[in-house]
């Protein structure tokens, strides 16, 4: 395809790298804007917002409308609204640049941009941002802004500093339609689980603050939705991600593994870890249905799940002894075609 | 949740004991103890703990090398950790997924699963056609509720409620259910989403199906590997395999009687750009017959197939995969008298991604002590850089062998099986040049070199490709596949169907009618406030969204 546009592979790759850098800078600015927004908030009691009476039958107030009963300090209110909007705009711009980077990478490689760790990381972090932006309105996720931007920023930094590898062709075994299906579903699930992890972490933060009876009316904690809402949003996100992960790891993965490596399930470390992640999330879903485990314990399990998920993605390549998932180690066609 | 009669619907109920009366432990009879144990085992909490144990138990296998996954790595690890090895061995840590303790976890989980699911199946079956339970007395005690007063009579309100809620809900009402004529008080109970529980049951049952399928596959199936030099044939018999890994109930008679010949092997080497040195488009054209044992007249017709990575050949229930390739230099070894001791392609194993390969040639001599052995490297594209031999790439642009030569006793007759890839040099003497310097067999295609001491000669004719094929049979794999698909369907139902109950109560009070609406979500994932408010909206004379419902309503009133 790259020939059609008269742009060389190298140029696309260059473009992609620059777009990633640009996205990183803009995410950083978005994070700064969010921090300014939150620091301005610190001085405002938001009791009225957080505790706003839910009109009988009306939807609970979870949107981030600036506090209605704010003190007369107009400039503070203005600052909050302005920086909130600014942060959102910057995040959108960064996400666009991020997407351009993925496109450039895809053009340069002539395939989907998830053939190695670097590509998987930038694609996966894009899913996180896209999920946040898409669900922001629906689930009232505005309060997630600073965390999402900070996290994606860190992920992009890790990707560029440690995981970067130039565009290279796929090993033959990866060259299959299943790459698109399997990896895409794994990535979507990873992005969603990550969002779910954030809501679960915030659940813990808020429940801790409430238990300590500390000041839940001010600052960040006050802007978080109520515990039941956090719990519900977490559950919904996990309920979406779990079947996708099931499909990625336990259906499309084995089918592809069978085609490429002649074995549905080989207890390869990456497979084992994906299985562990799956079991932990199954436990999370069970925990929510078990008296005495819902809420706090379920949230902790969700965090364990995210930890195994990301460990599997990044960590396993450094600790594992044997892995057939060769995208982890770049182009390695050794003695065996497929490995 | 405690405010409603959740007993029949709470998914936990069938498995959670009502709680034994407070008694001394000694008073428990054995039977009670057994029942108590069973209930514990099949409780949700136990399932949760077992799931976590399963996750924990799987961890060592991803950190410690596993015998079944990579035997060589495991051996190296064991050699490097002499103190830990015996302890790990006792704990089956090199074979976690076949260890007794791992099996214990998942067997317990399965027992718990069956014990949990089967009673729930019955409960579900019996409960499915039952009407929703009556509205609780005090609806305002539920977390999601609303109320209002109106001039309309309770009968009108309730009728409208029944009409509104009849869409996609099952209904139960006070009175005879069709009319609330003249009633001063009444209720409507609506329920939807019972299929969630069905999805959940289906999912858990499918987990069992998957395991059964998996079990059949690994008990009756097998997996084997063979390295075939291009031009050679293979027929599907145990003896033809280089390595073979049968399931414990595998029966060799069930092996399919096919055979095939690999005619060629081609590969494309990338010679420039960042992809330089990589190979792709592996292709091994072959011809096969699905049945070729016994009398040739009964053989099936010959068919051909282009074997490629990601494109296995399926013959009956057996699949053949291309998983590796390499080089087999064609070498002839003669003894001092010119007798041919060895002749043919020899499989060399690649040692690096550029296919610098290692191999040995073992040529048994005509007399004892006259064996000739060669050991060394094959370079597909040989080059000398500053006097050092290097291999430039994997393509065979400048094939060269560079080997050391030995004479003596290879130990082939001792009866101890030997690997064809290593040479036992205990009885061998390395050949040196007459001046005592190192002697190497450095040859390019077509060249011959005489060995020192008149021991003989070695000729390198050229090189052929070999392919490594994996052949495996997984019987009844469709059972697993079916289970997996059903599990996914069940899971989607279980996660996305929102079971919900809505109640409306109306009663006349001081000349007006007090209407109470409440809703309950049994999945814990629903947001009910909008539901309640939309029901209230529909009841407060706002036209119900369903046009048809309104028309009938007016018809009734007229
Ligand atoms: C291999 C083991 C198991 C796996 C992988 C598994 C997986 C799951 C999953 C993913 C869910 C979520 C679906 C939902 O929320 O409705 C679920 C729900 C459930 N599981 Fe399991 N499960 C297993 C074993 C068990 C066992 C042994 C029991 C019984 C003690 C059990 C009882 C339940 C119940 C009652 C629910 C419904 C929870 C609810 O209504 O939200 N499961 N299970």
- Rough shape of chain B? elongated
Strand elements of chain A, count: 0
Helix content of chain B: 25-40%
State mean pLDDT of chain A (0 to 100 scale).
76
**Between the first and last Cα atoms of chain A, what is the distance in angstroms?**
28 Å
Q: N- to C-terminal separation of chain B?
A: 41 Å
Supply the helix-strand structural class of chain A. Answer: mainly alpha
**Quaternary structure:** heterodimer
Low-confidence stretches of chain B: 1-23, 543-558
Helix and strand sequence of chain A: HHHHHHHHHH
What value does the Rg of chain A take, in angstroms? 22 Å
Low-confidence stretches of chain A: 46-70, 326-339
Reported for the largest beta sheet of chain B, the result is: 7 strands, antiparallel
- Average pLDDT of chain B works out at 80
Major sheet characteristics of chain A? none
Structural class of chain B: alpha+beta
User: What percentage of amino acids of chain B are in beta strands?
Assistant: 25-35%
Shape of chain A, please?
flat
Bound molecules: protoporphyrin IX containing FE
Give the largest interface pair and sizes. Answer: A-B, 72 and 81 residues
How does this structure look, described?
The complex is a heterodimer of chains A (339) and B (558). Chain A has 339 residues and is mainly alpha-helical. In chain A, 69% of the residues lie in helices and 0% in strands. Chain A is built from ten helices and no strands. By secondary structure, chain B is of the alpha+beta class. Helix content of chain B is 28%, strand content 31%. In chain B, the strands form five sheets. In chain B, strands 4, 6, 11, 12, 13, 22 and 23 form a seven-stranded antiparallel β-sheet that branches. In chain B, strands 14, 15, 16, 19, 20 and 21 form a six-stranded antiparallel β-sheet that branches. Residues 1-23 and 543-558 of chain B have low confidence and may be disordered. At the A-B interface, helix 8, helix 9 and helix 10 of A face helix 2, strand 1, strand 9, strand 12 and strand 14 of B. The complex binds protoporphyrin IX containing FE. Protoporphyrin IX containing FE sits between chains B (11, 15, 42-44, 47, 109, 112-113, 116, 200, 204, 207, 494-495) and A (282, 285-286, 289).
